[in-house]
Amino acid sequence: MWTRLQARLRATRVGGLPLILLPLLLANPARAEDLRAYTERFPPFNYQQEGQQASGISYELLMLIANKARLRIKTEFLPWPRAVSKNSADANSILFTTVRTAPRENSYLWVGPVDPCDIALIRLKSRNDIQLGTLADAHQYKVGVPAYGADIEILQRNNFPAEQLEKIPSSGSITRMLYAGRFDLVSGILLSHAYEAKTAGLNPTEMTVAYTLQPGLGCYFAFNPKVRADFYQRFLHAYQALVQDGTLSRLQAKYLR
Protein backbone atom coordinates (compact mmCIF):
# COMPACT_ATOMS: atom_id res chain seq x y z
CA MET A 1 0.00 0.00 0.00
CA TRP A 2 2.80 2.44 0.91
CA THR A 3 4.50 1.75 -2.44
CA ARG A 4 1.27 2.50 -4.37
CA LEU A 5 0.81 5.75 -2.38
CA GLN A 6 4.36 6.85 -3.21
CA ALA A 7 3.72 6.20 -6.90
CA ARG A 8 0.51 8.27 -6.81
CA LEU A 9 2.35 11.15 -5.12
CA ARG A 10 5.11 11.04 -7.75
CA ALA A 11 2.46 11.17 -10.48
CA THR A 12 1.04 14.36 -9.02
CA ARG A 13 4.38 16.19 -9.02
CA VAL A 14 6.19 18.06 -11.77
CA GLY A 15 9.81 19.03 -11.34
CA GLY A 16 9.60 18.10 -7.66
CA LEU A 17 6.58 20.40 -7.03
CA PRO A 18 3.03 19.26 -6.28
CA LEU A 19 0.69 19.85 -9.22
CA ILE A 20 -1.69 21.68 -6.90
CA LEU A 21 0.91 24.49 -6.64
CA LEU A 22 1.41 24.94 -10.38
CA PRO A 23 -1.60 27.23 -11.01
CA LEU A 24 -0.27 29.55 -8.28
CA LEU A 25 3.19 29.61 -9.82
CA LEU A 26 1.87 30.23 -13.32
CA ALA A 27 -0.35 33.04 -12.08
CA ASN A 28 2.57 34.66 -10.22
CA PRO A 29 5.74 34.16 -12.27
CA ALA A 30 8.96 35.82 -11.13
CA ARG A 31 8.58 39.41 -12.30
CA ALA A 32 11.15 40.54 -14.85
CA GLU A 33 12.40 44.10 -14.99
CA ASP A 34 9.85 46.85 -15.62
CA LEU A 35 12.27 49.10 -17.51
CA ARG A 36 15.57 48.74 -19.31
CA ALA A 37 18.04 51.62 -19.02
CA TYR A 38 20.65 51.95 -21.78
CA THR A 39 23.69 54.09 -21.11
CA GLU A 40 27.34 54.75 -21.98
CA ARG A 41 30.52 55.70 -20.18
CA PHE A 42 30.01 59.42 -19.49
CA PRO A 43 31.62 60.39 -16.17
CA PRO A 44 30.76 61.77 -13.73
CA PHE A 45 27.16 61.01 -14.75
CA ASN A 46 27.40 57.30 -15.56
CA TYR A 47 30.43 55.04 -15.78
CA GLN A 48 31.74 51.62 -14.81
CA GLN A 49 35.39 50.79 -14.22
CA GLU A 50 36.41 47.25 -15.19
CA GLY A 51 35.53 44.83 -12.41
CA GLN A 52 33.81 47.51 -10.36
CA GLN A 53 30.24 48.51 -9.66
CA ALA A 54 28.62 51.15 -11.86
CA SER A 55 28.60 54.66 -10.46
CA GLY A 56 27.95 58.32 -11.28
CA ILE A 57 25.44 61.05 -10.48
CA SER A 58 22.81 59.80 -12.93
CA TYR A 59 23.39 56.12 -12.18
CA GLU A 60 23.02 56.57 -8.42
CA LEU A 61 19.97 58.77 -8.94
CA LEU A 62 18.45 56.09 -11.20
CA MET A 63 18.87 53.45 -8.49
CA LEU A 64 17.29 55.72 -5.86
CA ILE A 65 14.38 56.50 -8.18
CA ALA A 66 13.87 52.79 -8.89
CA ASN A 67 13.73 52.04 -5.17
CA LYS A 68 11.37 54.91 -4.39
CA ALA A 69 9.07 54.18 -7.35
CA ARG A 70 9.21 50.41 -6.76
CA LEU A 71 10.36 49.83 -10.31
CA ARG A 72 12.72 47.07 -11.43
CA ILE A 73 15.27 48.66 -13.76
CA LYS A 74 18.00 46.76 -15.58
CA THR A 75 20.96 48.88 -16.71
CA GLU A 76 23.20 48.08 -19.68
CA PHE A 77 26.40 49.96 -20.65
CA LEU A 78 26.91 50.16 -24.42
CA PRO A 79 28.58 52.34 -27.06
CA TRP A 80 26.30 55.38 -27.46
CA PRO A 81 25.00 54.61 -31.00
CA ARG A 82 23.98 51.12 -29.89
CA ALA A 83 22.34 52.47 -26.73
CA VAL A 84 20.31 54.90 -28.85
CA SER A 85 19.29 52.09 -31.22
CA LYS A 86 18.22 49.71 -28.43
CA ASN A 87 16.21 52.43 -26.71
CA SER A 88 14.44 53.21 -29.98
CA ALA A 89 13.44 49.55 -30.40
CA ASP A 90 12.42 48.98 -26.76
CA ALA A 91 9.20 50.70 -25.67
CA ASN A 92 9.76 50.35 -21.93
CA SER A 93 13.26 51.76 -21.83
CA ILE A 94 15.33 54.78 -20.84
CA LEU A 95 18.36 56.37 -22.51
CA PHE A 96 20.70 58.21 -20.16
CA THR A 97 22.40 60.56 -19.59
CA THR A 98 20.89 62.41 -22.57
CA VAL A 99 21.49 66.07 -23.39
CA ARG A 100 18.17 67.71 -24.22
CA THR A 101 18.35 69.55 -27.55
CA ALA A 102 15.74 71.04 -29.89
CA PRO A 103 16.14 68.33 -32.58
CA ARG A 104 15.70 65.60 -29.93
CA GLU A 105 12.76 67.23 -28.15
CA ASN A 106 9.92 65.23 -29.71
CA SER A 107 11.81 61.93 -29.86
CA TYR A 108 11.59 61.23 -26.12
CA LEU A 109 9.66 61.77 -22.92
CA TRP A 110 11.94 63.60 -20.51
CA VAL A 111 12.63 63.36 -16.79
CA GLY A 112 15.17 65.76 -15.31
CA PRO A 113 17.38 67.64 -15.40
CA VAL A 114 20.17 65.86 -13.58
CA ASP A 115 22.49 68.81 -14.28
CA PRO A 116 22.30 72.01 -16.40
CA CYS A 117 24.93 70.55 -18.76
CA ASP A 118 26.01 73.64 -20.69
CA ILE A 119 27.72 72.42 -23.87
CA ALA A 120 30.78 74.53 -24.53
CA LEU A 121 34.08 74.94 -26.29
CA ILE A 122 36.75 74.58 -23.61
CA ARG A 123 40.37 75.74 -23.59
CA LEU A 124 43.29 75.65 -21.20
CA LYS A 125 43.62 78.83 -19.15
CA SER A 126 47.19 79.15 -20.41
CA ARG A 127 45.82 79.71 -23.94
CA ASN A 128 44.96 83.36 -23.45
CA ASP A 129 45.43 83.88 -27.18
CA ILE A 130 42.07 82.13 -27.73
CA GLN A 131 39.33 84.72 -27.22
CA LEU A 132 35.94 83.86 -28.72
CA GLY A 133 33.16 86.41 -29.12
CA THR A 134 31.23 84.31 -31.63
CA LEU A 135 31.35 80.71 -32.82
CA ALA A 136 32.85 81.93 -36.10
CA ASP A 137 35.88 83.12 -34.13
CA ALA A 138 36.62 79.45 -33.35
CA HIS A 139 36.80 78.40 -37.01
CA GLN A 140 40.56 78.98 -37.06
CA TYR A 141 41.20 76.50 -34.24
CA LYS A 142 41.48 72.72 -34.12
CA VAL A 143 38.66 71.27 -32.00
CA GLY A 144 38.49 67.80 -30.46
CA VAL A 145 34.92 66.50 -30.34
CA PRO A 146 33.24 63.25 -29.24
CA ALA A 147 32.47 61.08 -32.26
CA TYR A 148 28.81 60.94 -31.23
CA GLY A 149 26.59 63.24 -29.22
CA ALA A 150 24.99 66.64 -28.93
CA ASP A 151 28.31 68.50 -29.34
CA ILE A 152 28.97 67.47 -32.90
CA GLU A 153 25.28 67.83 -33.82
CA ILE A 154 25.36 71.47 -32.70
CA LEU A 155 28.66 72.24 -34.46
CA GLN A 156 27.55 70.64 -37.72
CA ARG A 157 24.18 72.39 -37.56
CA ASN A 158 26.06 75.69 -37.28
CA ASN A 159 28.26 74.86 -40.30
CA PHE A 160 31.49 74.58 -38.35
CA PRO A 161 34.32 73.72 -40.80
CA ALA A 162 34.57 69.92 -40.91
CA GLU A 163 38.35 70.03 -41.44
CA GLN A 164 38.75 71.74 -38.05
CA LEU A 165 36.92 68.99 -36.17
CA GLU A 166 38.69 65.84 -35.02
CA LYS A 167 36.28 63.14 -33.86
CA ILE A 168 37.51 61.03 -30.93
CA PRO A 169 35.59 57.99 -29.57
CA SER A 170 36.53 58.49 -25.90
CA SER A 171 35.82 61.63 -23.87
CA GLY A 172 38.72 60.75 -21.56
CA SER A 173 41.12 60.70 -24.51
CA ILE A 174 39.87 64.11 -25.68
CA THR A 175 40.59 65.66 -22.29
CA ARG A 176 44.12 64.26 -22.15
CA MET A 177 44.77 65.40 -25.72
CA LEU A 178 43.79 68.96 -24.81
CA TYR A 179 46.36 69.01 -22.01
CA ALA A 180 48.95 67.50 -24.36
CA GLY A 181 48.40 70.31 -26.88
CA ARG A 182 46.84 68.09 -29.54
CA PHE A 183 43.84 70.45 -29.82
CA ASP A 184 43.29 74.15 -29.28
CA LEU A 185 39.79 73.52 -27.96
CA VAL A 186 37.56 70.62 -26.99
CA SER A 187 33.79 70.50 -26.95
CA GLY A 188 31.63 69.13 -24.18
CA ILE A 189 30.49 69.70 -20.63
CA LEU A 190 33.10 71.28 -18.35
CA LEU A 191 32.05 69.08 -15.40
CA SER A 192 32.69 65.92 -17.43
CA HIS A 193 36.08 67.09 -18.72
CA ALA A 194 37.07 68.19 -15.19
CA TYR A 195 36.27 64.71 -13.87
CA GLU A 196 38.31 63.07 -16.66
CA ALA A 197 41.25 65.39 -15.95
CA LYS A 198 41.16 64.61 -12.24
CA THR A 199 41.03 60.87 -12.95
CA ALA A 200 44.07 61.20 -15.24
CA GLY A 201 46.05 63.03 -12.54
CA LEU A 202 45.73 66.41 -14.27
CA ASN A 203 44.66 69.68 -12.66
CA PRO A 204 41.02 70.28 -13.68
CA THR A 205 41.17 73.96 -12.68
CA GLU A 206 43.46 74.59 -15.67
CA MET A 207 40.42 74.43 -17.99
CA THR A 208 37.92 77.19 -18.68
CA VAL A 209 34.92 77.75 -20.96
CA ALA A 210 35.89 79.69 -24.09
CA TYR A 211 32.43 79.77 -25.68
CA THR A 212 29.05 78.30 -24.75
CA LEU A 213 27.53 76.41 -27.67
CA GLN A 214 24.25 75.67 -25.91
CA PRO A 215 23.26 76.99 -22.49
CA GLY A 216 21.79 74.42 -20.15
CA LEU A 217 18.77 72.72 -21.57
CA GLY A 218 20.09 70.01 -19.30
CA CYS A 219 21.05 66.35 -19.02
CA TYR A 220 18.03 64.05 -18.64
CA PHE A 221 16.64 60.55 -18.49
CA ALA A 222 15.09 60.14 -21.97
CA PHE A 223 12.21 57.65 -22.25
CA ASN A 224 11.01 55.89 -25.36
CA PRO A 225 7.72 57.74 -26.08
CA LYS A 226 5.82 54.41 -26.13
CA VAL A 227 6.71 53.65 -22.50
CA ARG A 228 3.91 52.48 -20.23
CA ALA A 229 2.32 55.61 -18.80
CA ASP A 230 2.22 54.31 -15.22
CA PHE A 231 5.94 53.45 -15.28
CA TYR A 232 6.78 56.92 -16.57
CA GLN A 233 4.58 58.67 -14.00
CA ARG A 234 5.98 56.66 -11.09
CA PHE A 235 9.52 57.43 -12.24
CA LEU A 236 8.74 61.14 -12.68
CA HIS A 237 7.12 61.49 -9.25
CA ALA A 238 10.05 59.71 -7.57
CA TYR A 239 12.53 62.02 -9.34
CA GLN A 240 10.58 65.09 -8.22
CA ALA A 241 10.55 63.86 -4.62
CA LEU A 242 14.32 63.30 -4.64
CA VAL A 243 14.89 66.80 -5.99
CA GLN A 244 12.58 68.25 -3.35
CA ASP A 245 14.29 66.51 -0.41
CA GLY A 246 17.79 67.56 -1.53
CA THR A 247 19.02 64.12 -2.63
CA LEU A 248 20.01 65.27 -6.13
CA SER A 249 21.95 68.25 -4.74
CA ARG A 250 23.84 65.95 -2.38
CA LEU A 251 24.72 63.60 -5.24
CA GLN A 252 26.02 66.49 -7.34
CA ALA A 253 28.15 67.71 -4.42
CA LYS A 254 29.53 64.19 -3.87
CA TYR A 255 30.95 64.00 -7.39
CA LEU A 256 32.18 67.59 -7.45
CA ARG A 257 34.37 67.19 -4.36
From TrEMBL:
Pfam families: SBP_bac_3. Gene3D superfamilies: Periplasmic binding protein-like II. InterPro entries: Solute-binding_3/MltF_N (IPR001638). Residues 38-256 form the Solute-binding protein family 3/N-terminal domain. This is Transporter substrate-binding domain-containing protein. The lineage of its organism: Bacteria, Pseudomonadati, Pseudomonadota, Betaproteobacteria, Neisseriales.
